[in-house]
Request: fold
Amino acid sequence: MAAATRDNLAARHLSIRDALTRRTLDALVVTSLPNIFYLTGFSGTAGIFVLTATRGWLLTDFRYVAAVQRLLATNDAWPDAAHVQVENSYDEALAALLVELGVRRIGFEATHLSVSRHQWLSTRLQVDEGPSGNGLQLVPTEGVVERVRVRKDAHEIATLRAAANLLSEVARDVLRTVQPGPSERELAAVIDYKLKSAGFARPAFDTIVAAGSNAALPHARPGGRRLHTGDLVLLDFGGVYDGYCVDLTRTVCLGRADDEMHRVYDAVAQAQRAALAIVAPGVPAAAVDAAARMVLADRGLGEAFGHGLGHGLGVEVHEAPRVAPRRPASSSHVPDASFESDMDIIAEGMVFTIEPGAYLPGWGGVRLEDDVLVTADGCEVLTDVPRELQV
Amino acid sequence: MAAATRDNLAARHLSIRDALTRRTLDALVVTSLPNIFYLTGFSGTAGIFVLTATRGWLLTDFRYVAAVQRLLATNDAWPDAAHVQVENSYDEALAALLVELGVRRIGFEATHLSVSRHQWLSTRLQVDEGPSGNGLQLVPTEGVVERVRVRKDAHEIATLRAAANLLSEVARDVLRTVQPGPSERELAAVIDYKLKSAGFARPAFDTIVAAGSNAALPHARPGGRRLHTGDLVLLDFGGVYDGYCVDLTRTVCLGRADDEMHRVYDAVAQAQRAALAIVAPGVPAAAVDAAARMVLADRGLGEAFGHGLGHGLGVEVHEAPRVAPRRPASSSHVPDASFESDMDIIAEGMVFTIEPGAYLPGWGGVRLEDDVLVTADGCEVLTDVPRELQV
Reply:
């Protein structure tokens, strides 16, 4: 795969600029690193991007000189690219740039800027609404870039499809070779090795291997417990490929599954099929969650499914849409601001997981997770790994 | 290793409460996840901790019910532990708790709370300094917990020592087995596998394997370039062990090193020895950086050393102290608020890296990195891996 092309980036910038125009903003200061990657292709552990009506300014420090130069030298640099090398402090460089550009109404990402940095910038820029001020305004915005990110463009779809193929290959390999003997932790190390060897930059999150009753915790951490014949084992892993995240879960029995394992597995598999069947543009994501939840409730497993059905995938492993029950209206604010209700109606180009589960304390758990791309009239399942309880 | 004991946690809370008293605060709202881990032993991807004069309240959601129950059931739960199960939104639950507790002056972590969340909390709590308000105040604080974290306690030192031993074992194994053939990416996958197999929860950062001229980038990413006989190869990796990060770099020649390799290597090794020799309580961290930098400058490699000499290690892989040249006074504010000047005088119990390097574009680079613990009169090098150019 390659990086996003200049055309991809130009289209993304156009969408952001539309949003700025609607809000009568002269510039947007982007401090979220995933958003910066989305708008420039630059990935580092620090950076700021400033988008104005005519240019896109990337601020980075000395560590990334060579990387940025390489990026700017390609045909795929973001359009109207400009670069500022930060000498001392990012916020000092940002303030100097904003003053130099002469922008007045400056949007910032309120969910991605700390109170501390905001306070410093306000003071430094002499933000003042009164006649004695310099007319600069720092205007809070929420989800400007995330709203564009929620529907994937052609480059992102190609990347996510390639990533899902690669993850499926790794998963088939893991399922072919899993057997009693190693500890959860050892098997997790093997899975991570296979992920990196296959071309993923890194695991998308800490790989989960949970055997027996450990699988009753949806977010179990692999430990020293060894895998035994007859164990039900939950495997949940993902990878980051060219900056994009994919995620998959399978649950298998190492040996002969008993009736209860079959009952729970079949219920979860049926819940997943029910959800997959109704994914289509215009459907509320909460309705997809409800479809799976009803199947589990009908089988007496309603209480056993304690988490949301899925989450968006992209530059982040958890992003919009949120595929889960509707929240009470009074509590719409959550720390993770990528989940906003107006992004939770399914639309073409969205990519998310469908991962129902059933967890029974003391017994174990079953989860099945696949990644889907929403098409014009339904969805395409991007991951392709057998769903079989018995291996 | 085990978790921090209740005594460890009690001492940490005492230090924080002293800071609260000095600031006449009734409570501190901790939203930084590393700080929450430090104060409770809880590690998850979401949570809030509220410390008052008499209790410590942890807020977590349904995903962590079992983990928190287990933690509370041990003798090592934090003192005066209380738990709130978040039903809908973290900030809603936080606001309800603060009102219930009747606290008035509430400190929050200004570098770890977004403008958006702060705005929501201010509105929800009817923060108002006038007579019509309810008397609640949200008071910005910076580095309250980080200032305590900078000097490690007995549990942390034992954990970091164990982690450094483990990392050294992995590194000696890697250096014994490295040879021409694999690509940078393949070798990085092997290193990550060894890290996890040795007992690390995960790599502390993306493992660096940089061969030949690729090593001229201090933050190179492993790619498809294969390792050849005669290559200079830079290996930089670390791991997270029981929540604590360690970090190590070696540079080796696969075959017979030429004169330039020897010259650069010897200069970097000498710079590291010079720095190690002067680490002691009371010494400004910037002076340690200067000691190494002078050696390199004397050898004509001053320009080739573009980054700081080291960084603190602990719950985060980059934390205070900052072992680097002093910043100009005008730019003391940086996005990473863990670096604050008053923590940059070396003190007993600090743990940090010493990692001089020399990078020559088109040729390659050399870096040597070890982790040190500051003792009463000097330092103890925690990592123990041969420093030999030739393998």
The two ends of chain B are 33 Å apart (CA to CA). The first strand of chain B starts at residue 27 and ends at 30. Chain B has a mean pLDDT of 93. Chain B touches chain A through 59 residues (CB under 8 Å).
